Amino acid sequence: MIHCMKKKHFILVLFWWLLLPVTGIAQHIIETPLSQPSSLRGMSVVDAQTVWVSGSHGMVGRSVDGGHHWEWTQVKGFEKSEFRDIEAFDRQTAIIMSIGSPAYILRTIDGGTNWNVVFTDSTPGMFLDAMMFWNSQSGMVIGDPLQERFYIARTFDGGKTWTPITELKRPEALPGEALFAASGSNIGKVSSSEAVFVTGGSHKRFFHKGGSIRLPVNDTTSTSGPNSIAVKNKKTMIIVGGDYLQKDETKHNCYTTSDGGKNWRQSQIPPTGYRSCIDHVRGNIWITCGLNGVDISYNNGETWENISTSGFHTLRASKDGRVVYFAGQRKTGKLIMSDLKPKDQRSIKK
Fold it and tell me: Hey, what CATH class is 1-33+183-350 in?
């Protein structure tokens, strides 16, 4: 009897110990619930204290104290709009993108109290996917194909006005090819004058200044493909995605390049499911999120470690790499990087 009790005690202790890595680490992501029924997919981190988010039902949120408190606004007249991306420049100035149709871009200069419509396009089939800015003045917005070419518009005055690129200068799309507006991050900045973006659906490609490269993915389903790209430098980039209808599937969900996109390879240990967003934190550290959790890599995406089973749509790291912010279904999150205890500290470059 005594032997049996000791055995049961040992099993219970072992079971408790096995649970520690998951539950303990997951608690490092501090979550803040949102009372309004909004799915948040747009995020912009100005600095460690200033964060903006946007989502469905015309909702926009702003925090100026590092995510401790949020100010929420439902943009008047846009209560049914999906603001899938947001770009902020400071505490007062931000731009939001409504996917369409019609598609809208709005701008605020008073912290979100008032919004002005700076772009409208009611072309049938118009669907905007993401925005990207090189600096406070120059930026671009990209959308799904119209007349078999991806839609692109540019701004050179901080988003006050937008000019579509002429049709013949827009990249050609293949049948069934599109972009995923999952997190506003399927486009990335490579240099002060160059951007890259990724597509999915029937064809999966990486687009760069010189053209496009087919990604080594043999899955041609319309719901699968790259959802997000993050850029460390001109050579090192990582793509994440998968099939959003199969949130636990790890196949074809992460690819890395170390030669500027000429060649792509799958991670040795991939993230633990479909992933909608990725960002470079600092050094060799990257972080990614999706419907079933959050993963981190300390070696430029070669291997990934799950740190939370809480789902998010989007994330962004602060410029100093010390804080990562998250947003998802009716919630935001915050991770202080120093709270994590990586298995191999030698892989981190400060």
Answer: mainly beta
* pLDDT, tens digit, 9 for 90 and up, residues 87-134: 999 999 999 999 988 999 999 999 999 999 999 999 999 999 999 999
Domain ranges of the chain: 1-33+183-350, 34-173
Radius of gyration, alpha carbons of the chain: 21
191 φ/ψ angles, rounded to the nearest 5 degrees: -150, -175
Helix (H) or strand (E) holding 5: helix 2-26
> Do 1-33+183-350 and 34-173 show the same overall fold?
yes
Q: What 3-state DSSP class applies to 183?
A: coil
Span 295-319, pLDDT tens digits: 999 999 999 999 999 999 999 999 9
Q: Which of 338, 308, 321, 339 is nearest to 31 (CA)?
A: 308
Q: Whole-angstrom Cα distance, residue 27 to residue 24?
A: 6
Q: Considering the entire predicted model, what is its pTM? A: 0.90
How far apart CA 99 and CA 259 sit, in angstroms, is 33
Nearest to 308 by CA among 24, 14, 66: 24
Average pLDDT, integer, range 174-194: 95
Q: Are 254 and 270 in contact (CB under 8 A)?
A: yes
Decide yes or no: CATH 2.130.10.10 for domain 34-173. yes
